[in-house]
Amino acid sequence: MKNLVHNVLLYSSLLILTTGCIKKSNKETRVHFHLFNPVTLEEFEGVQVKIYRMKSYILPKESKMELVWEGYTDASGRASYVFNAADKAKYEYIPEVDLSFTEGKELIFEPSPYYAISKDLENILNYCVVQKIQWIHHFKNINCFDANDKVRWRFKDLTLGSDNTWSYWFPHSGSNSFSPSGYFEGCTDHLTATRVDNQRIFLSQLEVTKNDSTYIIEDTLRLTGENGIDTLKLYY
After folding, report:
1. What pLDDT digit, counting tens, does each position of 156-185 carry?
2. 216 and 206 in contact (C-beta within 8 Å)?
């Protein structure tokens, strides 16, 4: 009887140790947070970031979260953590950023928390934050040839990368447009109304016709709002 009790206690202890331990992968999981403004390249220091381990249950349907690590971004807006993740598929890792630093700003990109961290791989977690600004377009024919000069404009938004498609041409054509031909014509000097929008990076393209010759003017323009109302200078 004494041996039986001893064996039961030993088995129970081993069971507790076995169930309490989480088998770790022998590969490293690397997580790199980067908090920055893609337009001005400002980087956000001193922001708290965390990584949680989440264990998902099928029955009952619930999840258990456990803090794995917390830290703060440095002067370059970065914080990194390297660890060996739990080997089993039921464990996932979730990032968290204290977004109080975005007050008065606009968070325009963040990774989906449930897909952000892939175990055993390198993970780059970008959080992109910009300011609201006021800006206008200024179309100006600075070297006018004659009344037959014409121009139209389109852009790509490069704020979050180069994958966006071209916008429609501006001005819009049609009877309801202030320029039915779809062009600014002659010796144009046109200011649009002030608009409130996010800071942006544009790939700008002007299609210009002068003296029976048509050509493209392409440029990358940043609207930062640092000097009050920003002007998108579309000169040709």
Report:
1. 999 998 778 999 999 988 766 678 899 999
2. yes
